[in-house]
Each structure stands twice: as C-alpha cells, then as structure tokens.
Amino acid sequence: MFKIRTSKYRHVFCDAPKQEPKNKHIILIIYKFKIATKFQFTHTGFRLSTVTGDQQYIKASTKYFAVALFGGGGAVYVGRHDRPGRFVPGHTPTLHGHAGAILDFEWNPFDDSMLATASEDTTIKLWSIPEDWEPIAANGQSNGGSDIEESIVDLVGHAKKVNLMRFHPTAANVLASSSSDYTVKLWDIETSQELSTFDEMQDLCQDIVWDYQGDNYATACKDKAVRFVDARSARVGKMIKQAHDGVKGVKVCYMGQSGKVLTTGHSRASGREVKIWDLRSLDKPLHVEKIDTAAGALMPMYDVDTDVIYLCGKGDGNIRTCEFEDKEPYFHKLNDGFRSTVPLKGVCMVPKRGLDIMQCETARLLKVTNEQGVQPLSFTVPRKSDAFQPDIYPNTASSVPAHSAQEWWGGSSKGPMTMSLNPSDKSTNGAGKPKPQKFQSVASLSSDVKKLEARIRYLEGKLNAAGISYDKN
Fold first, then answer.
1. Torsion sign (Cα): 397, 254, 166, 231
2. Backbone angles phi, psi at 353, to 5 degrees
C-alpha cells in the first residue's frame, strides 16, 4: 500500500464545487468582489459528444477550457474559467469547422488563445480565440454572438482519423499528432509543414507524451508496448515490450527530470495498477502499486513542480492524491483527495499560471461529467497566513518558449523557461507575454490579395489616364 510520510502537501484538500446561485444579483456581487474562486461554480447545459476513445475529453489553458459537443460539424464549446454558467444550445456561440466529429484538442502552452483540434475527417485545425470572447456573461447567462468558423491553419497529412495531439513543452509551434493510420507526425504549425513521421507502431496509439525537454516522446500502444522515440529522427530508442498484462488502455507520464517513467494500466487479473520504470533499464519496473479492481482506465495528472500525482479513473467519482519521490518506495499517500459519487468522463489540469495563488490553490482539475457539466476541482493546501507561500510554489513553466521550432529541429535542447508565481515578482522574472502569433487564415489572405489587386487596377488606371507608360509584366 501507499506509504505515509511528512509532506508540505500532506493535507491538501478539495471541496465539492457548487451550482450557480439562482439569484442573479448574488452572482454579480460574487464577481464584482472577485470571490468566485472560493465557490468554484460549475459550467452546465451542454450535451457532450458521444465519441469515445483514449482522449481526455477536456483541455484547458490558463484562460479557457474546451469540450466537444454532440452534433455534426465537429462543434466545440470554448468556455472561460471566470465565467461559469449555463450553456444554451443554438444561442451560446461555439467553434466549428470540421467535416467530422472532433476527437481531441490541445491548447498551445505559449499562447492561451490558440486551440488545435483533431477530427475524424483526418485533418488538424488551429484556431485563435478572440480576446473579447465571452460566451457566458458575468451573471451566468448565455451571451448571444457569432460562432468561430474560420481556422487560421489547416494541417493535412494523416490518412485516417486523428486521435491524439500534444504540443511541444519547450519549442514554439511544434505539435505531435497520432492517427488511426498508426503513425505519429510532428508539425511546424507556423509554416504548416510536416517535420517527421514515426510509423513503427503496430496498432492504435493510446497515449503520447513529451519528456521534460522535448527531445523524445513516448507512445503507449494497443499492442501493450510503450515506445520511447527520438523526436527528430523518428526512431525508437528504447521500448517496454509489455507495460501491463491487461487489455485496457495504458497511459504514460515522464516524471520530470528524474529519469523515471510512470505507466498506468490493468493487471492480468483486471486490477488497476501503477508502475514506475527506470529509463536506464526497462527490463522490469522499479515498483508496482496496486490500486483497485475498477474497470475504467487510470489517467495520471502529474504536477512536475510539486511531484504530486492526481490519479483519476474514467467512470470514477474519487480522485486519489499521492506524492512521487525518486527513491523507494516511490509513492506516498497524501490526504483523501476528492470524493464524489458523480463519475467523471474526462479530466484535465489547468496550467499553474492560472491558479489562485493567494488562496493556496496548488492544483485545479476540470472534471467533465455526462450529467453535471464541467466541475472545477480546486486542491488547496491549508495555510493560516494570507501572504505568498514560496515553499509550496516553486518556479513553474512560463508562457515564453525556450526556443523556436527551427532552433529545436536544428538540435537545440533546453528545459522550459520558468517563472516565479509570486505576484510581486511576475514583472521581473522573465515571464513576459510571448510575441503574438502571426498566423493568417486562407480566407483572410485571399481577402488581402483581392484588396491588393483592386489597388493595382486603380493605380494602373491613374497611370493610363496621365499617359505614363509602365511595365505591365
């Protein structure tokens, strides 16, 4: 079983989120005095897509979250963390533009407003969320408005539906995608070019994750193998031939810079388990932790800054919390985590930069359910002081990339740029806003070309009227 020890995060707790008050005046007061995070209201009203798979079903940036909706055209609801309320079908604006259902989505870690979507139509689209995007008003009611229908970049290359995506953790504009054609492709989204293709998988990819610096990525496959791939050469460097004996999905997680890897899956007796592996020797795991006998796949949410792991199971109501240590026995149980009778469909972690630091919120998970919408789960370390707590907030990854896609592809290897979470230090810690992405959609470029052509015709008319000759070629 889990071992118990002294830890700064030993007493981390999470209160159940609350439904929106029916009184609109109370809601306005809550937001006016900025106390919404104390209540953690839910986002409700949408009917989720019925597409199933190994995806998380929800992803979040520091400002927005996205969930796929039921219906044709690959609709996605993009909500704001600070605007909980009720989604109204046909009235609340959404994002759509694919010809098939959306299977996965991913937020750019260096641009909180850039969303990538993967679809059954074999394409990947990049979208830019407007700064004034507000589908839900401050009073929790739906805002009417225009849908987002125009993507800024389209990536075409996979032969079958695209199942999973992951942005590079340190390089700007590098995206990895896996497909039912049994390949993993790397893309430079700024140039819309394919960088490499890995085609050595023998079955469907169930998970894909980058290592800490982004030099390698790992894939968990339906053939029970976990492959560690050199991202630039697209060649397998190491492999776990059979990570787990069960037939359920396997998830992978690099444990920061420790050189260890965590996998979750099922045993031969259908019991859920967690294994720790040493990348230097993958013949057998360093440690095996038995969890329970439930059927749902375990999704590990790992906080690389604090080494806290949140074990979330599909179909579970409870979320377990434990702490990783790079020595035996590797796992240490923390508090009871979060307990609920409402099963989760999917879950994601909000980036550390989006947390309420002064309330000692050390993690926020977004739990998506079939019946009760999206529930923000705020994990808090109890502290008496209202001051910033540096011992529970080490520096975290900032919104500034460590290198460009071209530099990384040329061999640059760097860890993520970090920043202090102390509000008084944010202006001087090098974590300034990244340069805006200069992406333009095909439609906007076509419009610019038409304007330029019209301008050329106008100037040619002026020259002809003045009797001035010019080269028409």
1. positive
2. -65, -15
In whole angstroms, what is the distance from residue 207 CA to residue 218 CA?
A: 8
CA–CA dist 318, 42 (Å, integer): 17
* 209-258: pLDDT as tens digits: 999 999 999 999 999 999 999 999 999 999 999 999 998 899 999 999 99
Q: Work out whether strand 43-44 and strand 85-86 pair parallel, antiparallel, or are unpaired.
A: parallel
Confirm whether pTM is higher than 0.70.
yes
Residue 34 pLDDT more than 60?
Answer: no
The rounded distance, in Å, linking the Cα atoms of 299 and 410 is 33
Answer whether 374's CB lies under 8 Å from 65's CB.
yes
- Rounded to whole angstroms, how far apart are CA atoms 322 and 335? 8
Task: Convert 166-184 to b/e letters by CB count within 10 Å (16 or more is b).
Answer: bbbbbbbbbbbbbbbbbbb
SS3 letters across the chain: CCECCCCCCCCCEECCCECCCCCHHHHHHHHHCCCHHHHCECEECCCECCCCCCCCCCEECCCEEEEEECCCCCCEEEEECCCCEECCCCCCCCECCCCCCEEEEEECCCCCCEEEEEECCCEEEEEECCCCCCCECCCCCECCCCCECCCCEEEECCCCCEEEEEECCCECCEEEEEECCCCEEEEECCCCEEEEEECCCCCCEEEEEECCCCCEEEEEECCCCEEEEECCCCEEEEEECCCCCCCCCCEEEECCCCCEEEEEEECCCCCEEEEEEECCECCCCCEEEEEECCCCCEEEEEECCCCEEEEEECCCCCEEEEEECCCCCCEEECCCCECCCCCCCEEEECCHHHCCHHHCEEEEEEEECCCCCEEEEEEECCCCCCCCCCCCCCCEECCCCCECHHHHHCCCCCCCCEECCCCCCCCCCCCCCCCCCCCCCHHHHHHHHHHHHHHHHHHHHHHHHCCCCCCCC
Give the bridge partners for 125, in sequence order.
Answer: 117, 154
Alpha-carbon distance 307 to 288, whole Å? 18
Interstrand relation of 396-397 and 346-349 (parallel, antiparallel or unpaired) = unpaired
Distance of alpha carbon 224 from alpha carbon 268, whole angstroms: 12
Q: Please name the residue that has the structure tokens 């641009």.
A: 111
Distances in whole angstroms, Cα of residue 353 to Cα of each of 74, 185, 215, 361: 29, 29, 24, 11
Mean pLDDT of 259-267: 96
